[in-house]
Amino acid sequence: MPRTSLVTGLFALMLGLVPVVASAAPDYLSFKTEDEANNIEIFKNASPSVVFVTNSAMHRTSIFSRNVQEVPQGSGSGFVWDKTGLIVTNAHVIEGASRLTITLRDHSTWDADVVGVNEDKDIAVLRIKAPSDKLVPLPLGDSSLLEVGRKVVAIGNPFGLDTTMTVGVVSALGRDINSTNERVIHDVIQTDASINPGNSGGPLLNSLGQLVGVTAQIISPSGASAGIGFSIPVNTVKKVVPQLVQYGHVVRPVMGIGDMASDTWARQNGISGVVVIDVAAGMPADKAGIIGAQQNRRGEIVLGDVITEIDGNPVKTTDDLLTILEQHKGGDTIKVVTDRNGKRMEFKVTLADQENRPRIIRSR
Q1: Cβ 270 vs Cβ 299: under 8 Å
Q2: Distances (CA, A) of 347 to 84, 153, 285
Q3: Out of 75, 77, 122, 278, which one is annotated catalytic?
Q4: What's the pTM?
Q5: Which CATH superfamily is domain 263-361 in?
Q6: Does 46-134 match 143-247 in CATH topology?
Q7: Catalytic one among 171, 200, 225, 231?
């Protein structure tokens, strides 16, 4: 090319007289970041498993009438556990219900029966008679593999808005929260994924779309999400659900202790440990020699044994005692240390199965 033509071409390009071929604009419908694609996949796969739980109660129309009507008293979330129609949710979601209904993703509604409830872990199992082709169980993950910083996704029905997804991270692990009956739920997952009223009982999922937790509680001054939510780990749920299905409750071995003084009463009276009020005749505690409170000749109540230690683990509250027992099964022998009127006592107690409970004998 002659020098003059080259110079003329460059000059024209500088003036914008020669069109420049621009790169093609991205197509938004086909463009997704890696994280967006993962979120979309999780939601598409998991949302058919998430259900709407409606809790209704029967109330009189007035104090002067015998007529009653069904009144919705709450709602929450849940998810399909298996193809037989088992639904998992929180125990507090179904509390006080006269009738429970489950609404699936296709908006079909089914009456639900209560299979079992464990308030200690805030888990309930329901059953609906829906066709198996309408039921999409969630794949189960392993909550022990979670790490702080890993992504988690919550799907539920906050404020009655069905099938809402929020995304966050695992903020902390190993938290303790109180259940509705004041038992401590251990090893709880803390997340900043937004959890609001109505989310309770819904699934917490990892980046593979596997169930790693059941959303349960939030900490918030306003009652709405403040970025601190708690989920019961799926490894706990995997232990509880089969027992609720088989027995209707969680099976825990027993010592055969009847009533125990409340932790509040013990604390107010300067007692550290579990105060035994009475024992069941013929049960392990009775056979080992543990005694409850007794009445002396003057009619005064005299304390018997106060359990302070089991297998070297300190026992300060009823929850401590029950947590230790949950780690055992019927037939196991445990070493129980008590305080009896200032004297240290030691007992070998062979635990019994929960179903094997004779009547309680009140101390006199």
Answers
A1: no
A2: 46, 48, 9
A3: 122
A4: 0.74
A5: PDZ domain (2.30.42.10)
A6: yes
A7: 200
Structure-block tokens of residue 353: 């199965």
pLDDT in tens, 190-214: 999 888 777 889 999 999 999 999 9
d(CA 96, CA 216): 17
Q: Residues 59-93: pLDDT tens digits?
A: 444 454 454 444 445 678 999 999 999 999 999 99
- Closest by CA position to 89, among listed 40, 138, 41: 138
Q: How far, CA to CA in Å, does 329 sit from each of 184, 279, 313?
A: 20, 19, 17
Catalytic residue at 200? yes
What's CA 268's distance to the chain center, in Å? 31
> Which residue type occupies 70?
E
CATH of 46-134, one of 3.40.140.10, 2.40.10.10, 2.40.128.100, 3.30.870.10: 2.40.10.10
Q: Where are the domains of the chain?
A: 46-134, 143-247, 263-361
Per annotation, catalytic residue among 92, 263, 278, 319? 92
Report the relative pairing of strands 229-233 and 211-218 from DSSP bridges.
antiparallel
The question of whether 92 is a catalytic residue gets the answer yes
